[in-house]
Amino acid sequence: MEGKKEEKKPKNRVKMREQDPLTRARNFNEVPYGYTPFDAVEEASRCLSCKRPTCREGCPVEVDIPGFISLIKERKFLEACYKVKGKNALPAVCGRVCPQEIQCESLCILGKKGEPVAIGNLERFVADYEAEKGEIKVPEKPKPTGRKVVIIGSGPGGLTCAADLAKSGHQVTLFEALQKPGGVLIYGIPEFRLPKVIVEREVEYIKKLGVELILDAVIGKLYTVDELLNDKGYDACFIATGAGLPIFMGILGENLNGIYSANEFLTRANLMKAYLFPEYDTPIKRGKKVAVFGGGNVAMDSARVALRLGAERVYLIYRRSEAEMPARKAEVHHAYEEGIEFLLLTNPTRFIDDGKGNVCGVECIKMELGEPDESGRRRPVPIKGSEFQIEIDIAIPALGTRANPLLTKTMPDLKLNKRGYIVAEEETGMTSKLGVFAGGDIVTGAATVILAMGAGKKAARAINEYLKWKYWDFKS
Amino acid sequence: MFKILKKKELSDVVTLFEIDAKDIARKVQPGNFFVLKIHEQGERIPLTIADFDREKGTLTTVFQKVGKTTYHLGTLNEGVFIMDIIGPLGIPSHIENYGKVVCIGGGVGIAPVYPIARALKEAGNIIISIIGARTKNLIFWKEKMRNVSDELIVTTDDGSYGRKAVVTIPLDELLREDKDIKLVIAIGPAIMMKFVCRTTAKYNVKTIVSLNSIMVDATGMCGACRVEVGGETKFACVDGPEFDGHKVDFDQLMKRQQMYLDEEKIALERYREKYGIK
Ligand SMILES: Cc1cc2nc3c(=O)[nH]c(=O)nc-3n(C[C@H](O)[C@H](O)[C@H](O)COP(=O)(O)OP(=O)(O)OC[C@H]3O[C@@H](n4cnc5c(N)ncnc54)[C@H](O)[C@@H]3O)c2cc1C
Ligand SMILES: Cc1cc2nc3c(=O)[nH]c(=O)nc-3n(C[C@H](O)[C@H](O)[C@H](O)COP(=O)(O)OP(=O)(O)OC[C@H]3O[C@@H](n4cnc5c(N)ncnc54)[C@H](O)[C@@H]3O)c2cc1C
Ligand code: SF4
Ligand code: SF4
Ligand code: FES
Question: B9 burial class (0-12, 13-18, 19+ CB within 10 angstroms)?
Fold first, then answer.
């Protein structure tokens, strides 16, 4: 400790220790170890406790950032956690997966000159501290209102809305199609980025708030929303079913064996624990040479899972350049460190059959950046004659997802946009159907955990109002 | 948790379960299937709902032991619980009065074709059923099929029971002689469905098949089950499982079904060793 005394306000943020890249590239353990209490206090001491904290504007669920950081400074770690939980029912998750660099941290005043306060790392620390101490505090049960609300989908949007409504005293039932709750947090984001015990812990907390969770229930098939509202006596409904339909590229050979949508690859690995095959029954192909297509979080996760399943080489093929990659910066960095090979400005044109129905290669074409498109990003255009082939035995398109019509097609009176997403008011989640609210990826298209949570929170507030007044005025 | 209320061995390798699943039974229709997962470490596998009783709240399913999960399932007894059952899934069969329909069940495919034949019969159709298997002791539900059919033909590959033939031979004869046949429904191994479609194509008779591609979630989220139908990629779990057989790329389906042969072998051998099963 000597030599540190005089630096009361260290300039640089305290780094989290991480597993060595080459070791971790072969195991499924979490990459960063998290802060020690000492690290946390040190990092917290950088925060200026601003009177008008700009950071808060960057948090869709309105965490009292200076408030909880001040409690860390005083070493009141549990109180700090309760403070966060007042606004955010999933702090251990958000601390790990929020794209802080474009949310809260992007607006931290310290970011103007140097590095912003590591708000995410601190949030993660207090949540883990609480869990480790085993002192999970459940707020006192409010007086029951006698109202029943049904929520469809147990991803971050559904969980947040359920927690808030239960805290208001409503009777909440949460239906989930899969055998485990958590949505993308369980089936998509891998263990080494978000250990599943953490998701389970956060779900336990929500159950303790009194939420009834019903798994294996595909709404639209098992019940329709009308049956729930009319026959089962629910007063309102919140739909947070995510954007779960994989997009394929529509190129030749895409249905060959060895080509997985990222959803399938990650679901097998994470939800079904295929990386533990044959201890677990679900198989997954362990490729030697794997190509992943895309530049988002989903592509990074797929590439890093393939590596951990024993691949010798993993290529990440993206048609734009690194600057346009939508993935969290930290994850791109981790992927580089672990040895993922980035083939940028490259696009696949067709898959090659080994003659037995398995993929054995992919033909790609080089791209260059042309004029900006509607999104303002420069549009990649193929360079004629630059085709080349790579030998692979597994290919994983991770090009995003679409709206799953399974539920919405049973609701003819629900207004959808032309891409099949539910039309809902941004501030309330109100839809064209009386008593039905929606939020998260099924409204916005694939976005982020924290935006889905923000939508869940706003909808909970609006549902509260609706249950009081039964007033419905949907304009749109 | 879903309780097995009744178990019946239909042959050495085919078993029937009646399962307590009130909510699903309320909604199920012919052509639907469910997904089950036996226990925590288990995989999700799809099975067709071969019968149901809405009053009692039960589902009947008939499965053939082909690999680790179905062998394990076969060891479960009455009173035991299955951890997860998800359904009813898939688009139900389209039932209307077509006139005369041929229903073909090959092997364990007899079970899923039964509720469809029954519903078509109730809708006023004349039903000719063909059920076939490799050998005698793989034939089951002969009486049940007879009860919903105007005519029943039984075939075995080895001639140990019924007619010595594959199902396409009596089918060809029927189509040749009877121009009133409006529709053929075939459920069984992919190879059988492929040859049924070849046969019916000659006579230009519409043919519906039920595809058993490998599935994971069975709600349209993963694309494991994708099949090419009329040159387009479809997801068997949500767009099907029934499709116009004349448009299906059966060769691709069969290749995709074999994707995990190595892993399936490992799983089954390990399972047999552990429980001392030959
Ligand atoms: C691999 C991957 C990595 C990601 N990484 C990040 C990251 O690092 N940071 C970040 O912020 N975001 C990340 N995202 C995006 C983020 O996970 C999503 O934006 C977020 O989970 C959306 O939440 P949601 O509540 O809208 O839906 P989801 O999380 O998609 O959950 C929807 C749930 O509804 C269920 N459901 C669907 N239909 C039905 C039905 N008919 N009946 C019952 N249940 C149904 C589904 O099974 C699912 O459990 C990632 C996404 C993926 C796929
Ligand atoms: C819609 C549908 C309905 C079905 N209905 C029935 C039925 O009523 N009775 C019946 O006996 N079988 C049915 N099947 C097939 C049944 O799902 C497979 O036999 C079962 O999954 C085999 O699992 P296993 O572990 O015992 O064998 P494995 O050794 O794992 O596999 C044996 C073969 O079964 C197929 N298979 C393996 N895993 C899956 C999976 N997850 N999903 C689908 N197929 C798989 C593969 O082609 C494989 O080669 C149906 C399949 C589908 C898609
Ligand atoms: S929830 Fe996310 S955006 Fe909000 S403070 Fe925490 S890390 Fe930042
Ligand atoms: S803006 Fe930065 S320094 Fe100011 S309160 Fe927020 S985290 Fe602390
Ligand atoms: S099984 Fe996953 S989409 Fe059909």
Answer: exposed
Peptide bond just before A246 cis, omega within 30 deg: no
Q: Which of residues 282-301 of A touch B (CB under 8 A)?
A: 282-283, 285
Ligand positioned closest to the Cα atom of A203: 1
Q: Cα–Cα distance between A19 and A221 in angstroms, integer?
A: 44
| pLDDT tens, residue by residue, A375-422 | 777 889 999 999 999 999 999 999 988 999 999 999 999 999 999 999
Rounded to whole angstroms, the Cα distance separating B234 from B243 reads: 10
Tens digit of pLDDT for each residue in A185-237?
999 999 999 999 999 998 998 999 999 999 999 999 999 999 999 999 999 99
Residue A452 Cα to chain centre, angstroms: 9
Q: Which residues have C-beta within 8 Å of that of residue A233, sequence separation ≥ 6?
A: A148
List beta partners, residue B56. Answer: none
- What gap in Å lies between CA B35 and CA B241, rounded to an integer? 13
Helix/strand/coil (H/E/C) assignment for every residue in B165-222: CCCHHHHHHHHHHCCCEEEEEEECCHHHHHHHHHHHHHHCCEEEEECCCCCCCCCCCC
> Looking at ligand 1, which atom is closest to the CA of residue A217?
43
Nearest to B226 by CA among B261, B256, B266, B204: B256
- The closest ligand to the CA of B35 turns out to be 2
| Position A214, amino acid | I
- B274 Cβ partners below 8 Å, 6+ apart? none
- Above 0.85 for ipTM, yes or no? yes
Q: Which residue has the tokens 């708000």?
A: A119
* CA nearest ligand 1 atom 30, residue: A242
Provide CATH 2.40.30.10 ranges for chain B.
2-89
Residue A42 Cβ inside 6 Å of ligand 1? The answer reads no
B68's enclosing H/E stretch is helix B68-75
Question: Topology of B100-210 in CATH?
Answer: Rossmann fold (3.40.50)
**Where does chain B hold its CATH 3.40.50.80 domain(s)?**
100-210
Nearest residue of A to residue B266 by CA position? A278
A218 touches chain B (CB under 8 A): yes
Which tokens sit at B224?
Answer: 């494991």
- Report the nearest atom of ligand 1 relative to the CA of A193: 8
Is residue A145 exposed (0-12), middle (13-18) or buried (19+ Cβ within 10 Å)? Answer: middle
CATH tag, B2-89: 2.40.30.10
Give dist(CA A150, CA B74) in Å, integer.
37
